[in-house]
Every structure is written in structure tokens, then in C-alpha cells.
Write a structure and sequence with these properties.
Layout: E1 3-8, E2 11-14, H1 21-30, E3 40-44, E4 52-58, E5 64-69, H2 84-99, E6 107-111, E7 116-120, E8 126-127, H3 128-133, H4 141-154, H5 163-172, H6 176-192, H7 205-213, H8 216-231, E9 235-237, E10 246-249, E11 252-255, E12 262-264, H9 267-287, H10 292-323, H11 334-359, H12 365-368, H13 373-393, H14 401-412
Antiparallel strand pairs: 1-2, 3-4, 4-5, 5-7, 6-7, 8-10, 9-12, 10-11
Helix pairs in contact: 4-10, 6-8, 6-11, 7-13, 9-10, 9-11, 9-13, 10-11, 10-14, 11-13, 13-14
The chain binds adenosine-5'-diphosphate and magnesium ion.
Magnesium ion binds near residues 48, 50, 257 and 259.
Length: about 425
């Protein structure tokens, strides 16, 4: 057994050792997060493939915290994965909280050696993916998420940060193993099945052969977008900004789980949000009976898509125009040129996220959870055809939210 360098109440922690409830309770008491005499409940509530997430609550006061533990071995497959992701997650949460307060859970304590993050419990929030599947709407969502993205992304670019600070942050946030996962799952597999990990829905096998693997023009665009993902150290990205990383309640939006954070192209985060709103829209399209309820819900989603894009654009542009510290970034026309590229990237990345969640092995409940096989077949086709329009048309269209909706209306008639 390999000692990782940390101890828990005097007991050494070994590589690959899974923490249990008793360990976690001992840990939070030892570090003064709860009183030594407190009677605590501890429940493992993780639902992802990667880490362990515990909710600890004081039975007397009801005070609770979340403890996230990054094991050396993946929770799902047992494969090894670097634990530096835990440092990157903790540091990103702290930075995001400074840049966009009120949109990120507060970090109370981080232990590098033990790979433990103790943070605010969002007990009264719900996972946005499942909230959307329950047809709930969140009127402040577009405003909240566009603020979060404009603040965390634009303020970590070369335009705003001190040049030495920016370079130091790029270096500290280099996240090779997590980036490799995205490079493989988002950019490579959907277009090649190179590693043989795709899990296509049987009824669409031939459709995917034509629209994805056999679509040479599309594969070339995916290759170009991957190059941008690998080389464009534009801003500190969240890196996994899907609706399962967003927790919502009425009037408030929180973004968690930035373990894929790294310096990459801004459009990757923006595109992820848009794509995951599209999944919710497509789910409603194929599973809800036509009528008022469906039209109200889809109209809300369409406004959320349009406003997320447009509000992000205007907030980002405002920061660039008013607060750029780099002398050349102050050149008239630069901010508009910069944002034009960001919007093109966003459309392309949204398309890639749509495709990879359909054909790849990391599926989303919005689509893979559709029970009726014909409905699922249609949902997948809508997503892929929509995605391909975004990827191939990203340099001509999609500078505004309305462009995304126009394409959605064209695709709906399929
Ligand atoms: P993973 O990196 O393993 O995917 P996540 O950070 O996504 O882990 O957390 C998994 C689940 O744990 C979330 O879907 C949520 O239900 C719960 N969770 C994580 N962090 C919090 C938090 N701060 N407050 C409340 N629940 C949380
Ligand atoms: Mg995660």
C-alpha cells in the first residue's frame, strides 16, 4: 500500500483507500468543522462516476456541509485518475466565488493531501437536469448563468488579468488527464469510434454512420474545434458546464463540480450550457403531448436559450470594452472581433456536446431516458441534425440567440 502523505485522526491514508462515514465524521470533527461532541449523520449522496460526496449534518442543530472526496480510483470503473483534479476543483470554486459571488458553493476547507473539499450544502437546490425533466422553469436562470460565464470567463482572459498572473494561472490549472477525457469523448469518438467506446442506440446506427462517421466535412470541423480546445488558452473554463453541474432553486443558480477546469476556449463552456438546454427542449418535443403545457414549457426554454446567448454576449462585451487592461485589447473594434470568435466557437462546441451525448458512452437522461423507442430515435436525430448545423454553420450564423431558435424551428418539422 502506498501512503499518500495525509493522516486521518492519526491514521495514515493509503492510495486507493475509500473513505467511509466514520472516517469522514472523524475528519470534520478533527478539523473543527463540527464540535467534537456533536452527533452527526453522514450519508454518501454522490451520483456521478468519479468521486464520493458525503452530506454531514448535526442532528441537534440541523447545520450541514458537503464533503467531496476524490479517490485515486474512479468510483464507477475503478480505473486510476489523477487526484490533482481535487486541487483544481477547490481552487476554481474559490476563484469562481470571488469572480461571481452567489453562483458557486462556498468552500469552507480544502485538504490537498487528503483530497477533501468541505463546502456549502446546497440542500435546498435541485439538479437542473432533473428539474427540467420535471418541467420546472427558472425565470432568473439566463441572467444568472450569463453573469457567471461573463464574470468567470472574461475576467480570466489576457484582456483583463495581469499578464504574469494569467500565465501563472494557466500553469497552475493545467489539467492533462481530465482534458484527455474530453479530447477523447467530445472531439474524437463521436466522429471516428477510434477507441470503440461509443454506444449508439440501435435504431440510429445507420443514421450515425451517414451523419457522423461518414460526414467528412463535419469531421474536419470537429478536428479544427479540437485543435482550439487543445491550444487556445483563452480563459479559465469550468470545463463540464452541463445542467447536471448546475443546481437551481427559485431565483438562484449555483454552479458546482469544476474538476475539468483548465485554460481553454470560452465557447466550450457557453456551448455546453446551450446544448444541455437543447436536450431539455428535445425531450419535451418528443415526450409531451401537444398542448398548452408543452408550448409554455418549450417557450420558456427557447427564451432561456436566446437570453443566455444574448445576455452573455452583452455582459462579456461590456467587460471587454470598459475594463480591458491590456493596451492592445483597448483598440477600437477589438472587443467586437473577440466576441465574434467566441460566439462562433460557442455554436461549434454546443454542436459537439450534443453529438457526444447522443452517440458516446456519457449519455444524458433527457435523451437516453426516453422510454418510447420511436420517440428516442426521433429525439436523437433532432439533436444530431441540429448539432451538425451548428458545427458547420458556426462561422456564418449563431452570433445571436435568435439564430439558435431559427434553426430549432427548422429542425422541429422533422
Ligand atoms: P462528481 O464529480 O463525482 O460528478 P459532483 O460534484 O457532480 O460529483 O456531485 C455529485 C452529486 O453530489 C451532485 O449531483 C449532488 O447531488 C451532490 N452534491 C455535490 N456537491 C453538492 C453541494 N455542494 N451541495 C449539495 N449537493 C451536492
Ligand atoms: Mg464531476
Amino acid at each position: 500500500m502506498i501512503f499518500v502523505g495525509a493522516t486521518l485522526c492519526g491514521r495514515p491514508i493509503f492510495l486507493g483507500e475509500i473513505m467511509n462515514s466514520a472516517d469522514i465524521i472523524a475528519y470534520v470533527k478533527e478539523h473543527g468543522i463540527f464540535d467534537r461532541n456533536a452527533e452527526l449523520s453522514c450519508q454518501e449522496i454522490g451520483d456521478g462516476n468519479i468521486n464520493y460526496v458525503f452530506r454531514l449534518a448535526d442532528k441537534a442543530t440541523g447545520k450541514s456541509v458537503i464533503v467531496k472526496y476524490a479517490d485515486e480510483l474512479l468510483r464507477s470503473s475503478g480505473r486510476k485518475l489523477c487526484t490533482d483534479r481535487s486541487r483544481i476543483e477547490a481552487e476554481t470554486l474559490i476563484l469562481h466565488n470571488q469572480l461571481s459571488p452567489g453562483h458557486v458553493p462556498e468552500v469552507y476547507h480544502y485538504d490537498h493531501a487528503a483530497r477533501l473539499i468541505v463546502m456549502q450544502d446546497l440542500a435546498d437546490y435541485e439538479n437542473m437536469r432533473y428539474a427540467l425533466l420535471a418541467r420546472k422553469t427558472f425565470p432568473t436562470f439566463a441572467d444568472d448563468i450569463s453573469t457567471f460565464m461573463a464574470q468567470t470567463l472574461i475576467r480570466t482572459t489576457d484582456n483583463i488579468l495581469d499578464p504574469m498572473d494569467k500565465k501563472a494561472l494557466v500553469k497552475s490549472m493545467i489539467n492533462p488527464e481530465m482534458c484527455l477525457i474530453s479530447e477523447k469523448l467530445v472531439f474524437t469518438e463521436p466522429y471516428t469510434n477510434h477507441y470503440g467506446t461509443n454506444t449508439p442506440f440501435e435504431e440510429n446506427t445507420e443514421f450515425f454512420k451517414k451523419e457522423l462517421y461518414g460526414n467528412e466535412a463535419l469531421c474536419l470541423e470537429a478536428a479544427k474545434l479540437q485543435d482550439s480546445f487543445k491550444t487556445n488558452a483563452q480563459a479559465l473554463l469550468h470545463g463540464d458546464l452541463h445542467t447536471g453541474s448546475i443546481f437551481v432553486k427559485s431565483g438562484s443558480t449555483m454552479v458546482l463540480d469544476p474538476e475539468f477546469a483548465f485554460y481553454g476556449p470560452i465557447g466550450y463552456d457557453v456551448g455546453n450550457v446551450v446544448a444541455n438546454l437543447i436536450f431539455a427542449w428535445v425531450n419535451a418535443e418528443v415526450t409531451m403531448p401537444n398542448g398548452n403545457e408543452k408550448s409554455t414549457f418549450q417557450t420558456w426554454l427557447e427564451c432561456a436559450i436566446r437570453d443566455t446567448v444574448d445576455l452573455f454576449y452583452s455582459k462579456a462585451l461590456r467587460i471587454l470594452k470598459n475594463e480591458a487592461t491590456d493596451r492592445m485589447a483597448q483598440t477600437p473594434g477589438f472587443a467586437e472581433w473577440y466576441m465574434q470568435n467566441v460566439m462562433s466557437d460557442s455554436a461549434g462546441m454546443a454542436g459537439l456536446e450534443l453529438n457526444r451525448r447522443i452517440i458516446g458512452d456519457a449519455k444524458v437522461a433527457d435523451i437516453a431516458g426516453i422510454k418510447d423507442r420511436d420517440a428516442r430515435k426521433r429525439a436523437e436525430r433532432i439533436c444530431v441534425l441540429y448539432a451538425n448545423k451548428l458545427i458547420l454553420g458556426r462561422n456564418k450564423r449563431y452570433q445571436s440567440g435568435e439564430e439558435y431558435l431559427k434553426t430549432l424551428r427548422e429542425i422541429r418539422i422533422l
